[in-house]
Amino acid sequence: MHPRADRYTTSGLRTSLLSVPGAVGAEAVGLRPVGEVMGCVVEHAQDLAPSMRRGYATALDRLRAEATELGADGVLAIGCTVTRVSAAVREFVVLGTAVRASRGKRPPRPFTTGLSGPDVAKLMLAGWVPVTVAIGIDGATAYDLAMTDRPGEEAAVPTDLVSRVRAAARAEFSASVRESGADGGLVSSTTLQAWALGHTGAAAVASVFGTAVARFGARRAPTVSHPVLRLDGNPPSR
Fold it and tell me: Which residues make Cβ contacts (< 8 Å) with residue 27, sequence separation at least 6?
């Protein structure tokens, strides 16, 4: 057992990274926080895009393993950070709050999502469930010997480079959603890093982060908000 999970088990302490609205939203659909979980890895980056894929995947696998040891059914509000240790070394850290369902059928392995507790509640009330964090990443380089000789004009080669890596990252995100067996994906954020390589080259890395979701019922999303959200599943009295 992981030392962090062992401390939870022996002490009985249950920590959470959820905000008060986040915890209330999760409780409203029967998801009780059972502890914060983390996954991290330090990755030596020879090729940036493949290294980022491995780093995120490894960190998420370790977070999911911690959640499994806590007997969790899912992890909410996962945040990902990347710290550049040196020119070729990066640390990947993912943090979230493990939750356990108080009722219903449990998944074969914990789901993961970057969505907050209220967002997960809205999703489930509309007949959808989160499946897994989905990520798409791509990077490339391009060179144009005439790049510096056209001031005031569009640099066609870097423009094409940025367009290609963004499209490839979106395609990889879509493939990740399909491979998870989900019915769709919610994009939560996109990033793009681009920089010059000398006077005639350019490099770019794009990423797409989100959650793969699956439908479990033909429900309609709630369209009326209430001043009080009850935790027992009953609608508030008017």
Answer: 117, 231
CA atoms within 13 A on the CB side of 117: 23
Phi, psi of 131 (to 5 degrees): -110, -60
The β-bridge partners of 149 are: none
Is there a shared CATH topology between the 1-126 domain and the 128-216 domain? yes
Q: What is the pLDDT of residues 149-198, one digit of tens each?
A: 666 777 788 899 999 999 999 999 999 999 999 999 999 999 999 998 98
Q: Where are the domains of the chain?
A: 1-126, 128-216
User: Which residue type is seen at 223?
Assistant: T
153 DSSP assignment? S
State the pLDDT at residue 222.
55
How many Å apart are CA 132 and CA 24, to the nearest integer? 22
Distance of alpha carbon 160 from alpha carbon 141, whole angstroms: 11
- Kindly report the CATH class assigned to 128-216: alpha beta
CB 75 within 8 A of CB 22: no
The Cα–Cα gap between 138 and 196 comes to: 17
Q: Which two tokens stand for residue 82?
A: 């990347």
